[in-house]
């Protein structure tokens, strides 16, 4: 298995999870950089609106070609029940090269069915595994066991 972990993170939680998954799998990772300003209260409002409108954004250049990996693990914070603009853009631009996919998210609440259904529809393939973590458990650092189970699920496929 040659996985690539690709994630977007506005405030660091999804990044923490993405890096932990990549470290556990000892694989490459790619942090997406959104060129649109997302910081502060204005960035928060803009991000919510963009998510609602399913707007795409402009990403900074990426380092890794997803076509040379047999599993792409995609991570995003939930915005308004759906995908962040950066991961929506990355999937839209690269999905034709994905062989297999897995998804993870971080969120404040607990509802994530719409997000994962939408990621599956956008990728046009079902995920081999999914992982949802709450921001508060990520902040506490209490998520290693869930990462291990997620990674075991990937390796069992
Ligand atoms: C614009 C916006 C909308 C959000 N909408 C939701 C939501 O619908 N449900 C939820 O549980 N969390 C929501 N959140 C909270 C984030 O998903 C959560 O804080 C996440 O862990 C942030 O990840 P990050 O630090 O990687 O950016 C929202 C955050 C933002 C900025």
Secondary structure topology:
Elements: E1 3-7, H1 13-25, E2 28-31, H2 40-52, E3 71-77, H3 85-94, E4 101-107, H4 113-123, E5 127-134, H5 135-140, H6 144-155
Parallel strand pairs: 1-2, 1-3, 3-4, 4-5
Helix pairs in contact: 1-6
The structure holds flavin mononucleotide.
Which key phrases capture this entry?
157 residues; Rossmann fold; 41% helix; binds flavin mononucleotide
**SS strand fraction:** 15-25%
Mind telling me the CATH superfamily name?
Answer: Flavodoxin domain
Can you name the CATH architecture? 3-Layer(aba) Sandwich
Total of helices? 6
CATH class: Alpha Beta
Number of domains: 1
- Count of individual beta strands: 5
Quaternary structure of the protein: single chain
Low-confidence stretches: none
Let me know the largest β-sheet: 5 strands, parallel
Report the radius of gyration as a whole number of Å.
14 Å
Molecules bound to protein: flavin mononucleotide
Shape: globular
Which sequence of strands runs across the widest sheet?
Answer: 2-1-3-4-5
Structural class of the helices, strands and pairings? Answer: alpha/beta
């Amino acid at each position: 298995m040659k996985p690539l972990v690709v994630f977007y993170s506005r405030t660091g939680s999804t990044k923490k999870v993405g890096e932990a998954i990549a470290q556990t799998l000892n694989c490459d990772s790619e942090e997406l950089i959104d060129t649109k300003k997302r910081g502060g209260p204005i960035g928060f409002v803009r991000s919510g609106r963009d998510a609602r409108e399913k707007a795409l954004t402009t990403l900074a250049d990426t380092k890794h070609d997803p076509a040379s990996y047999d599993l792409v693990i995609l991570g995003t914070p939930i915005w308004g029940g759906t995908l962040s603009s950066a991961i929506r853009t990355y999937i839209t631009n690269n999905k034709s090269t994905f062989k297999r996919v897995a998804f993870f998210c971080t969120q404040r609440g607990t509802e994530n069915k719409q997000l994962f259904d939408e990621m599956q529809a956008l990728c046009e393939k079902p995920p081999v595994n999914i992982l949802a973590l709450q921001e508060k458990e990520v902040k506490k650092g209490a998520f290693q066991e869930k990462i291990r189970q997620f990674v075991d699920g990937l390796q069992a496929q």
